[in-house]
Design the sequence.
């Protein structure tokens, strides 16, 4: 019979065990081994049944066992130590508290998904895992972050396979009362709520759940409340579900409702109000509109409020392709704002203008969330050096006339939270080598000097550790594979072969990620005979562990999964290659440490960063990857291999896959597999072990989320907080008025004449050439602009590369036509074809970049030709 109503019955812990509740409700347990060990000792069987979730564990412990533990002095000592350690972690000074003055009092971090732990399944892939690692690292460093997201009642889907290998999706219902969450409540005990106005006089209401991630509160908005109508209750039904209006409402709730939730949380708890708002991808971009509306309600006009909001906003883009960005029909967006809907005090046309693709190649009827995010943020970044370059190219239309390298999008390369992803065995080895505190500092704060001691670990210890981790993975794979085949309809009598799947002494390669086409799950199958030879090689065999989910609406991705599964089902190779369904955090934490090589073969440059290889590297796993994302930035032959790419513009996609698959097979046959099995005098693979050592010591400190968050603090959060403080209502109004005046006057700005002291078309290295430039500024003054000389080597089409920029200075009074003379030196510091040009840019001390307004004036062709622009 089916129940008509569901309750969550919480256990009543004896007084001596009350601290267990606090430990379970703070998600620090998900990356703190000692706390997890404590919970496991409560009931090893219950811990396994709960999937390592303390809340579920405590809900199933028998009262007799609780009474027994309440009288167990040894357990109570461990409990007291764990509770004291958590208290010290939450209240003591950390890295952030030791920095100079001027840091943000608080930062609000918005993301559509957060991967904190498998016990809180609110993530689909890399974006959410990155967001979870960002929060954990901020907690470890003491950064006063507030996370903001949505609570999806079905989370992301669970994946199983049909008998013929087709992906099947399941959406289990999540009860918030059974998750490590507490509901945010008003002082009178009623649930705290946020509300959005919808067209037709309707409303979208949401309650606020709190997940405590160490020191960082994570606010999750949940629309499944009785006050909502059925359609509105389903807004937070599932992650990336639906489309059109459903997705728009999710993003309005995340952005606008999220700001209101932050205000509510700060009011109720006394937490400092954020000075910086960080938008993790465009999904939360509407947060800027809510903040503009707040300032307009206090008396500022729209333009002044826009400048104040931009100063304190950071926008991070994660996608390298326009197709990965949410875009909505402008009429749909327009209907949800204005007098009859949300933000009634703001002109709908001003809202629409922030997101419209009003640039060459854009679609003028589409509202682009990333474009709005960039227009609402004074600071923006990609997530690797290569991705920063790709982003500058992709969004260059927003800054017309500027070279892509001048587009104001920087990069902060992603990192991963080491305590979450490093195997306990690796942690214990580090603690023995460094001491517990220094090992913790190495994994959280980073710094290469803390990782240098890896050199002191013996070859034997490293090799035994790798063997242990590989053996654990083999056992994990067999267990998961057996469960998968049972779900596919197989009986135990058919599954005896699983006991022989994988070998703890065979080179093990991992490949696990989402399954969009550009990640090329099946590139390894390009030449099946050759792959089979690699798997079954008599002297240098390899084995492959593969996992990944295709989006529920992506039948092409599902076909790739099925193709891989069918190959792995072949009795000739099924002991050497496996596909594990339902890839998630729990599986990943077993998979990364147990692999010897992590494979990544995306279409370059479509991998924004790709952090799975970082997690593997922290466990001593070597990377074998296309030079994309972070690997393009940090690859060295000392600790991995680069798969050559055939990414020329004229290469046919099928031909490209053939070439790159052949390069992958060559690397595996000739270098990777032989290197693993080659033995030195002591019977150990000396060269391989040295690569593991180099991976840990050289890559370890770079790939940390602690390094990433420290970069965000220094390079983005601190400047944003300073801009936020400087942009008071008066200064924001002054800046908005100045921008309006400059935009109005810019059509009258021109470079009218350029001359140099150069006497010919050649000059000697080290020569200094004098420049004289006459410019017209119209109604602007020299204080409003900067006149620059831009010089450097030129190509065959006279494009300047690796440019040097030198500001020129005004001299004398305006001439009879009102033009001003600017002068300055031009140093010829490079040989070969050399060129220069002159340009005029707006200049104001509160601009974060000279390109911020997207305005510049350059010489006309006639002026350029008369000036002799190129020296050869």
Sequence:
């Amino acid at each position: 019979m089916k129940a008509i109503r569901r309750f969550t019955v919480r256990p009543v812990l004896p007084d001596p065990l009350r601290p267990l509740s606090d430990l379970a409700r703070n998600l620090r347990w998900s990356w703190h081994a000692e706390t997890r060990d404590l919970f496991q000792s409560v009931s090893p069987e219950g811990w396994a049944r709960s999937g390592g979730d303390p809340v579920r564990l405590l809900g199933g412990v028998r009262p007799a066992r609780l009474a027994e533990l309440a009288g167990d002095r040894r357990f109570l000592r461990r409990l007291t130590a764990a509770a004291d350690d958590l208290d010290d972690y939450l209240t003591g000074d950390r890295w952030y508290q030791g920095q100079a003055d001027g840091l943000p009092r608080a930062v609000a971090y918005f993301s559509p998904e957060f991967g904190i732990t498998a016990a809180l399944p609110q993530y689909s892939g890399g974006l959410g895992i990155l967001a979870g690692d960002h929060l954990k690292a901020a907690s470890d460093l003491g950064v006063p972050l507030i996370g903001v997201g949505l609570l999806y009642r079905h989370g992301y889907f669970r994946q199983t396979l049909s008998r013929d290998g087709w992906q099947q999706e399941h959406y289990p219902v999540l009860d918030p009362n059974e998750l490590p969450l507490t509901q945010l409540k008003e002082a009178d005990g009623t649930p705290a709520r946020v509300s959005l106005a919808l067209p037709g006089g309707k409303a979208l209401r949401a309650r606020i759940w709190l997940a405590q991630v160490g020191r960082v509160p994570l606010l999750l908005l949940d629309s499944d409340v009785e006050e909502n109508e059925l359609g509105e209750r389903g807004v937070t039904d599932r992650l990336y579900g639906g489309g059109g209006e459903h997705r728009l409402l999710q993003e309005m709730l995340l952005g606008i409702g999220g700001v209101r939730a932050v205000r509510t949380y700060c009011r109720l708890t006394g937490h400092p109000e954020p000075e910086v708002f960080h938008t993790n991808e465009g999904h939360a971009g509407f947060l800027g509109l809510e903040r503009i509306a707040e300032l307009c309600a206090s008396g500022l006009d729209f333009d002044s409020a826009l400048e104040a909001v931009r100063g304190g906003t950071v926008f991070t883009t994660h996608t390298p392709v326009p197709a990965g960005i949410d875009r909505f029909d402008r009429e749909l967006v327009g209907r949800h704002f204005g007098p009859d809907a949300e933000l009634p005090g703001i002109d709908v046309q001003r809202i629409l203008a922030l997101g419209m693709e009003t640039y060459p190649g854009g679609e003028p009827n589409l509202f682009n969330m990333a474009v709005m995010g960039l227009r609402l943020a004074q600071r923006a970044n990609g997530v690797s050096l290569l991705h920063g370059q790709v982003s500058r190219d992709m969004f260059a239309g927003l800054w017309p006339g500027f070279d892509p390298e001048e587009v104001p999008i920087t990069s902060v390369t992603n990192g991963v939270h080491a305590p979450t992803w490093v195997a306990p065995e690796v942690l214990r080895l580090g603690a023995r080598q460094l001491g517990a505190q220094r090992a913790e500092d190495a994994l959280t704060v980073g710094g290469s000097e803390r990782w240098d001691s890896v050199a002191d670990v013996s070859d034997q210890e490293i090799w035994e550790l790798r063997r242990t981790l590989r053996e654990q993975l083999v056992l994990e794979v067999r267990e998961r594979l057996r469960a998968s085949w049972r779900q596919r309809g197989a009986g135990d009598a058919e599954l005896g072969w699983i006991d022989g799947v994988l070998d703890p002494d065979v080179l093990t390669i991992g490949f696990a990620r989402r399954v969009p086409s550009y990640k090329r799950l099946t590139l390894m199958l390009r030449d099946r005979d050759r792959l089979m030879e690699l798997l079954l090689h008599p002297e240098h065999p390899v084995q492959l562990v593969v996992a990944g989910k295709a989006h529920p609406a992506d039948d092409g991705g599902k076909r790739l999964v099925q193709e891989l599964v069918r190959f792995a089902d072949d009795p000739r190779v099924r002991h050497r290659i496996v596909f594990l369904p339902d890839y998630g955090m729990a599986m990943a934490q077993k998979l990364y440490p147990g692999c010897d090589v992590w494979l990544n073969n995306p279409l370059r440059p479509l991998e924004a960063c790709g952090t799975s290889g970082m997690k593997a590297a922290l466990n001593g796993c070597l990377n074998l990857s296309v030079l994309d994302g972070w690997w393009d930035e940090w690859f060295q032959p000392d600790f991995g291999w680069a798969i050559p790419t055939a990414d020329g513009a004229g290469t046919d996609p099928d031909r490209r896959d053939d070439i790159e698959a052949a390069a992958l097979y060559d690397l595996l046959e000739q270098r990777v597999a032989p290197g693993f099995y080659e033995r030195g005098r002591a019977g150990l693979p000396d060269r391989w072990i040295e690569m593991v050592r180099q991976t840990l010591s050289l890559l370890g400190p770079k790939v940390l989320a602690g390094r990433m968050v420290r970069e965000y603090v220094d390079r983005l959060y601190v400047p944003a907080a300073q801009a936020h403080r400087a942009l008071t209502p008066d200064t924001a109004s002054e800046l908005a008025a100045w921008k309006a005046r400059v935009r109005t006057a810019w059509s009258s700005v021109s470079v009218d004449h350029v001359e140099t002291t150069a006497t010919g078309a050649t000059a000697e290295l080290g020569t200094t050439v004098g420049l004289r430039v006459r410019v017209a500024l119209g109604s602007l003054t020299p204080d409003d602009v900067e006149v620059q000389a831009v010089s450097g080597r030129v190509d065959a089409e006279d494009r300047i590369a690796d440019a040097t920029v030198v500001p020129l200075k005004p001299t004398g009074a305006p001439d009879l036509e009102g033009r001003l003379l600017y002068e300055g030196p031009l140093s010829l510091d490079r040989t070969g074809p050399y060129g220069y040009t002159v340009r005029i840019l707006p200049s104001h001390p509160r601009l974060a970049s000279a390109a911020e307004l997207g305005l510049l004036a350059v010489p006309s062709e006639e002026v350029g030709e008369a000036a002799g622009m190129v020296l050869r």
